[in-house]
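Supplementary Methods S3. Input chains for the assembly prediction are listed below.
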Amino acid sequence: MRPVRVAALLLRQLYLLRGSPARVLPIFAWVAIDVVLWGFITRYLNAVTSPGFDLVPVLLGAVLLWDFFGRVMQGVTMAFFEDVWSRSFLNVFSTPISIPEYVTALVVSSVATSAVALGVMVALAAAAFGLSFLGFGLALVPLLLVLFLFGIALGVIGCAIVLRLGPAAEWLIWPIPAVLSPFAGVFYPVATLPAWMQACSRLLPPSYVFEALRALVAGRSVPASAFAIGGALAIAHVLLACWIFVRVFRYAVRTGLLARYSAESVS
Amino acid sequence: MTTPPAPAVAAPPVLSVDALRKAYGAVAAVDGVSFRVHRGEIVGLLGPNGAGKTTIIDMVLGVVTPSAGAIRIDGADLGARRSAALERTSFAAVYAPLPGNLTVRQNLRVFGLLYGVAALGRRIDALLEELDLTALRDVRCGVLSSGEQTRVSLAKALLNDPRLMLLDEPTASLDPATAREVRARIRAFVARSGAGVLWTSHNMFEVQEVCHRVLFLSRGRILLEGDPRSLPREHGLATLEDLFVAVAREPLTLERG
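Predicted structure tokens for the full assembly:
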């Protein structure tokens, strides 16, 4: 692993962000809109439901964490799509860069953009709606970490899908968080779901995160096993995602797809 | 027309290709190709469209995996030591322009880091100067003319002071004056650095001017090999273009022995 090659792709992302408001705005604009929308919904629900239970940390906190996960995933895919849009595969992959270096650059790029998004969301939620994550203390760290790892995993899988199916497959990637959210129990306990959906939930690390969030808000302790299972699942998803990406990349090199990517298929 | 300076054939080759084969299902795009490129040597890879030239270049670049055979670049086995082999290899082709949304300098900086170029800032400034790109350094590549984009691609290809350059129709779409200038710069670089070049072109005048040796490909196989200035006569033809047409039309009559 040569850090300088990772730095090269990060520099490329920086150049692109610096010169393009269309790239900078989505990093925080949509998540900020989500926070504002759900902040007012939560305020309204607080006004019409029985007093004593604050919905702000339950709903707005959940939205914030879910949007963080979505930003992490998109941070990975956006960096990859830059190569798709500028048709750079031939130039980039004919350099000495290795696949671990390339994927690391996607991940580090996502760390930077999702950190900005998280900062904006936390500041806006605190300033406008009084949501403070400080009350959760250090328990918040593993929750964010699990969501971050799962976001990376889905981002890498998204890149593999687009590499395999061609640029038009991009539209399959954007809705992935929305498709998963009913299973992840973002806004309700997993027990609310039918048995088959609960079985799916158990395989999704975010479902452990949101169960833990609700327990923390209710003042209950969160068993360490919940963090451990969520974390282990997230790591397993990251490893699986990397394995899938490497397999797809090798397929693309073996079949000639990488060199003729704009054709979308070599068959 | 001048004959290019003789290459260093006694030294180990910068590119060794042995029994290279690439098959897509039952179709062999490249079928048992073997050749060498020596230091200071420009080898022309010629053949009709679909003969397998670009597939060979893609395999040497590591973006297409061979079905069989071996590729060694400056002694490093491409399959086993890909990064080491590609570190001193470079590539330019008219169909692979640099990202148009970055400026000339930004592109050169990004690719310079990818190739691990030392003293990158100075190297970029020197190449911008050498290729008359200084005035365009802060212009996005997407708005440059074809000739300017070719010069930028060439600057990228020279960044890492390559031992092996792969140039796939580097002067296609250029006007004759710019094409001549590009050929002169590449020849000067080869003479100065001792790099080896694998060059594809459909311009037979250009091939005769710059190449020490040519390989004629047809249907994935090398049919002929030799000096582009004497090869037509050896086959009873007047020009290299006549030979090219003969290879394209009647490959079976020209199989190499």
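The first strand of chain B starts at residue 15 and ends at 24. The radius of gyration of chain B is 18 Å.
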